[in-house]
Amino acid sequence: MLHAYYLPLPNALISILKMVTLIATIIYTVSLVINNQLSYGTMIAIIAYVPLIFSPLDNFMAFILNIRGAEIGISRVLNIYDKGEKVLQQRNDNIIKLSNNIALLVKDLSFRYDEKSDSILKNLSFNIKSGKKVGFVGLSGEGKSSLLKLLYKENEIKEGHIEFYGTDINDFAYSNYFHYINVFPQESEIFNQDVVFNIALGKKSILACKKDKIIFEIRNMFDKQLNNFLKYQNYHFQLDEIRETFEMMGILHLEKEIIRRDYEYILNELTSIHFHKTYVTKEKLDNVIKKTKLEKFYGRPLGEGGAFISGGEKQRVILARFLLNEHYRFFIIDEPFTSLDIISEKEMINLLKEDLKDKTGIVISHKFNVLHALSDEYFVLKDGMLIETGTHKELYKKDSFYRELLKTYIEENRID
Ligand SMILES: Nc1ncnc2c1ncn2[C@@H]1O[C@H](COP(=O)(O)OP(=O)(O)OP(=O)(O)O)[C@@H](O)[C@H]1O
Ligand SMILES: [Mg+2]
Predict the structure, then answer these.
(1) 140 CB less than 6 Å from ligand 1?
(2) Cβ(365) – ligand 1 distance below 6 Å
(3) Given the CA of residue 139, which atom of ligand 1 is nearest to it?
(4) Residues 199-209: pLDDT tens digits?
(5) Which of 159, 225, 267, 392 is most buried, judged by most C-beta within 10 A?
(6) 100 part of a folded domain
(7) Is residue 288 in a domain?
(8) What domain range is 336 assigned to?
(9) 135 and 52 share a domain?
(10) Which tens digit of pLDDT belongs to each residue from 375-393?
(11) How many domains does the chain have?
(12) Cβ–Cβ < 8 Å for 344, 197
């Protein structure tokens, strides 16, 4: 397959070739004009046509770049898929139990991107209780996003241990885990489609009045499938998407006794996972688009990577995606609203605050107004270590790094 490393060279050669051809054409035609062998008008026409000769070559290079983009995308998908496959081979009946009151437990976690360099995160240990919202504070490049990527399985855990509601996160199937967490990443993909596509990401939009009927049908379908699964040793699923939902929950690796014992719980979870993976109500979709003020982008492509929208609008799209998710148990928000004006920022913070009421999770932001609106307590990272924890009041009373950062922030944002 063609690789990015090979692309700069042909690109540079084509540019040189274009320039040389153009200069040669100019010199040659000018000499013909001087010798009265060519009219001035024809010379201009010939020079104007030269760039057109290269347009097929430009198209070809654009095509190669597209292939390269697709190659990167495919390798990321396969990377995630591989992780999922690895996980699915494990047996763990904890997968279906999310009853622990410690939502997240991190133990002796160290992390480095490169074996040769120093650790970015050094022996971190902490926990987040169910119902708590924690703001992570720290200087830029401290490793906050890297920590979050470990939590949502984008970075691989090599040293230490992370538990999600009592279960090692490595024991969750990738897609199942994502049913339980809702991520607002620092950077995210935007597709060259309209706002509905970019937010719903493949989910079917249905009217709210049809929701109960669809849930009822899904429940019946899974009831039948689960029964058949228990009845026959080697059950063959007729639909890949049903098998996929079973796989997501790790059902295929559960003891039949466990399935019988937790039948109702499993049935409800299967129904909920399948519904929320497949459908979204049109009312909710429209409401989220309206609240995030993205109505003008109905039916209008946003450009590859959001090329046709502003930085602030990109963040609204990411926020809208986040708000559309309903049935998650833990949120991970990394540096939202870095490109919004102060009024939009306030509106969006309020939207997020409303959505996060009674939820559990982590917020990272350099902006203390964002942190204070969305968190109950703070964890301070410095030199890869967790140096302070506590509420704003507790940390502000002390001669803490938190206090130093907050004071500098206030000082820098003051206009006399
Ligand atoms: N994929 C990567 N490969 C190698 N090094 C990386 C990678 N991603 C981040 N780093 C490095 O790891 C360190 C921590 O990066 P990280 O993005 O976690 O910082 P951060 O605390 O989130 O910073 P910010 O507040 O600026 O977002 C940085 O020095 C960064 O250069
Ligand atoms: Mg970051």
Answers:
(1) yes
(2) no
(3) 25
(4) 999 999 999 99
(5) 225
(6) yes
(7) no
(8) 93-190+309-413
(9) no
(10) 999 999 999 999 999 999 9
(11) 2
(12) no
